[in-house]
Structure formats: C-alpha cells, structure tokens
Here is the input.
Amino acid sequence: MNIFIDNKSIAPIYEQIYSQIKQNILCGILKENEMLPSIRGLAKDLRISFITTKRAYEELEKDGFIYTVQGKGCFVCTQNGELIREENLKKIEKHIEEIVKLSTICGLSKEEIISMIEFEMEEKYE
Here is the structure.
C-alpha cells in the first residue's frame, strides 16, 4: 500500500492518510480482513508523528472502514454494499455539480446534457 503525503496540500496529514486508505478500500485495492501496516510502522515509513497516523486510523475505524484487534493490529472491515454505493453517489453528485456549472458557461440546454450522457452510456454499455 502506497501512501503519499503532499506537504503543499492544505489538507492535514491525517486527512490525507485517511482519504488514501479509504479510497484503497472502496476501490478494492485493500481487501476485507486485510491487515494494515502498524500505526508506528506507517508513521516511521512516512516520517510523521505516531499521533498523526493514530488519528487517521481512529477516524477510519469510527467511520466503519477498519477494525482493531487488540495486540494484533488493524484490519479492513467487510464492506457494506450500501456504504460503497453512498460514497459513489456522493462522487457522482460532485461531478454533476461541475457539469451544471460548465454547461451554464457554455450555454448548453438540459436536453443537450442528457443527450451527451446518453451517448456516453451507449458507448460504455454496447
């Protein structure tokens, strides 16, 4: 598992770790019950504070993405299909917001946007 810390990002380091691990779980890169690197080990690899890594893991556990087994480590939770669906719906909504903004700038009608989406879906599902 590769995690990259962007020191120029305005996002706190723990959020960067959280987001990347969460994305790896949702995309299936990290599988159910797969063990994550230890908190101390990840902190050492990333050259960051143990506390920062611990906070990212705590947030992941709070949100239901990982679980901890005392004395053994942190593992990827069995993913709830509804949770994954909800995450993907949020992403789609953000893209739709961007489409609406751009279409307004370009003067596209609702029908033209729908036509473009239908065309794209036909290309993907043929």
